[in-house]
Amino acid sequence: MNSSSLWQPFKLGRLKLPHRLALAPMTRNRANPDGTPGELAAEYYRQRAALGLLITEGTQPSEDGQGYLTTPGIYTPEHIAGWAKVADAVHEKGGHLFIQLMHVGRISHPDNTPHHRQPVAPSAISAEQDMFTTEGPKKTPVPRELSVAEIQDVIGEFRHAAASAIAAGADGVEIHAANGYLLHQFLAPNANQRTDSYGGSIENRARFVVEVTQAVAEEIGADRTGIRISPAFPLGGLDEGDAEAVRAQYRYLVGELAKLNLVYLHVHHLGDDELLAALREVWPTAVLVVRYGRERDGIDADIVTGLADLAPLGRYALANPDIVERLRTDAPLNDLDPSTLYTGGAHGYTDYPARTGV
User: Fold this and answer.
1) What CDD domains does this protein map onto (predicted)?
2) Residue in 44, 75, 181, 264 annotated catalytic
3) What is the pLDDT of residues 112-125, one digit of tens each?
């Protein structure tokens, strides 16, 4: 792909990126049982450092934040030491690392967490999702509703996780407010039926997301803080209402977040281009856009139209450690093996072949 728009350098906060591609966050389930990144993680991210900006897999900020088996954390000294190896490997190859902070909320099962407690959420409403455990698939249980005091504790967990990411040598963090997880749950009326200051109105449902983001930006700097949203994505059993309700919620939310001057807004886009254009208009810094089903020849489409500044790659980058060079030279791509996405070990993780050394 020789589109000139993809190969223009870009300044992202403190970072100078060589082009407009990036690595999208993708859960790989390869962490050690205690949540420390596995020994292969540094190699996995190092191989893909040519993408410039690498956004890691979702990383829990606390024990309550874990939903899936063998996902990494960023809240203990051991986690920091593990991520430091990843950051060093990426930096040695000239890349930059943002750790995605992901609290899953109700998308969890006690079998998968260190403390085996009931999951937490804005309201005591089950997601009714299948969750893989060591004993096979189980339904996510009814979560426990967070008290107002506990909400403040969770905000503190995000603050601590962000500081831990920087201590590990990461260049920044991405707050995961998308894809059906805790922050997204607060935005969705069918998951958030609170009657206090964190529920009910558009403003109240957005409050938790805004307060988490304020805390992280205060802790590590707005120019090292990004956020991901996914308007209208029905993941994790969420229903955000009709198109007008979704537009109203996200225009307000993004308008409030824009005041913080974060380094980027990352939109996991379902297809409402009118909303995307409205968000782009009010956002003061970089916009990243990922679309499901995007074909190779459409990677640069949102950059060409001005809707995005960067194009994060998911499965193309997963299966092709040298994806930047392959796209630059119009080389063929490796096929993805879906059976190895979450299986652990090197196979399907660090053993996809590169055409040249990476």
Assistant:
1) OYE_like_FMN (cd02933)
2) 181
3) 999 999 999 999 99
Give the burial string for 12-26 (b: 16+ CB within 10 Å, else e): bbebebbbbbbbbbb
CATH architecture of 4-340: Alpha-Beta Barrel (3.20)
> pLDDT at residue 2 above 60?
no
pLDDT given at position 4: 85
Cα–Cα distance, 316 to 331 (Å, whole number) = 13
Residues pairing with 145 in the sheet: 121
**Do the Cβ atoms of 156 and 173 come closer than 8 Å?**
no
Q: What end-to-end distance do the CA atoms of the chain give, in Å? A: 19
Q: Which two tokens stand for residue 244?
A: 């007008």
- Looking at this protein, which amino acid is placed at residue 258? A
Q: Can you tell me the distance from the alpha carbon of 164 to that of 220, in angstroms, rounded to the nearest whole number?
A: 10
Please enumerate in sequence order all residues whose Cβ is within 8 A of that of 141, keeping only pairs 6 or more positions apart, or say none.
109, 110, 118, 119, 126
Phi, psi of 205 (to 5 degrees): -65, -25
Residues 70-105: pLDDT tens digits? 999 999 999 999 999 999 999 999 999 999 999 999
Torsion sign across C-alpha atoms 313, 315, 318, 319? negative
Reduce the DSSP state of residue 141 to 3 states and report it: coil
| Residue 181 known to be catalytic | yes
The answer to whether 217 and 256 are in contact (CB under 8 A) is no
Q: What is the pLDDT of residues 35-79, one digit of tens each?
A: 999 999 999 999 999 999 999 999 999 999 999 999 999 999 999
Q: How many CB atoms sit inside 10 A of residue 36's CB?
A: 21
CA–CA distances in Å: residue 133 to residues 36, 71, 126: 19, 13, 17
| Domain coordinates in residue numbering, the chain | 4-340
pLDDT at 294 over 90: no
Q: Tell me the pLDDT band of 357, cut-offs 50, 70 and 90.
A: low
